[in-house]
Every structure is written in C-alpha cells, then in structure tokens.
Amino acid sequence: MNIIISGKNMDITDSLRRQINKKVGKLKRYFDPGTEAQVTLSVEKNRHIVEVTIPFNGILIRAEESTDDMYASIDMVLDKLERQIHKYRTKLWRKFRTDAFTDDQMLFSKGESHDEKDDELKIVRTKRFAVKPMSVEEALMQMDLIGHSFFVFSNAETDEVNVIYKRRDGKYGLIEPEFE
Fold this sequence. Notes:
Layout: E1 2-8, H1 14-25, E2 36-44, E3 47-56, E4 59-67, H2 70-96, E5 133-134, H3 136-146, E6 150-155, E7 161-166, E8 172-175
Parallel strand pairs: 1-2, 5-6
Antiparallel strand pairs: 2-3, 3-4, 6-7, 7-8
C-alpha cells in the first residue's frame, strides 16, 4: 500500500509520518498491494484534522476526524476506516457472495459547488467521473460508504442516469429522468 501524506497549514514531522505509516499500513491487509491511501493533515483553530481517502477498484473509502491532538485524530480516523471496511465488506459479501469487494464500482464526485458570496450563479468547480451501471441498492451502499448526501449513477435496469439522495427525514429518495 502506498501512503501519500500531505499537510495543510502545518509541517509534517518525522514522528507524525512514522505514526501514519504504522497505523495506515495496518489497512494493507484489506487492499491490493498497489492501492494508494491519501492522508491529509491540517490544523484549524486548534483542531487537528486527519482525512484519509482510499480509492480502489472504483470504490472510494473516506474518513475524517478532528480532535485537540493530532495523534488522537489519527487513531480515531483509523478506527472509523476499519469499521467502514468491515461493515461494507460483510454487507457486500452477503449480497453478492464471493469477490464482491473487488467488483468494479463507480467513483463519486462532489459535483459542482456554489459560491454563496456572489449573488450571481457561477460554477466554480467541475468534476468528471466514470459512470458504471449498478443497481439502486449498490448505489445506496456506495453513497453511504463515502458519506455524501447524494450519488449519481447509471441505473443498470433502465440504462439511464439516476440520482439517489438522503432526505431530511433520514430516508432516501431516487430521481429518475422522465422525457416528454
């Protein structure tokens, strides 16, 4: 597993680098040898934030934690990642039986963001991603896995682009196009 460490508003010390390599290196048993883990450390108003993103075979696993201590944040984010991996590995194994965790899935993008300081509507970021056909249940699991409130996917049953989203009441909705 290749571990890429970057820092925002801080310098990464050798001891931090060793700790990250030790902790994140334990996750290598779940992934192929060439998998990359991107670790971003940042400090904002005395909050030490650790974000870990692991893209592999089209699936994106991400966790973020912040505490008053960088080492505690590292420990907490690794615990969260291991829980996610176990949860989804078990869920996918039950659903798809063997080799489910290595099936190709779709990468998710955050989409476009809106700059609220301007009254004018303006696209400030564009992301592109591969759209692979999947069932609604797979899309729901992928959205939950990456921790976002919506997910764009190609519906395997209808061959159309759909959006699944989390409603304010905690339930989920599906947007399907209807052409006139």
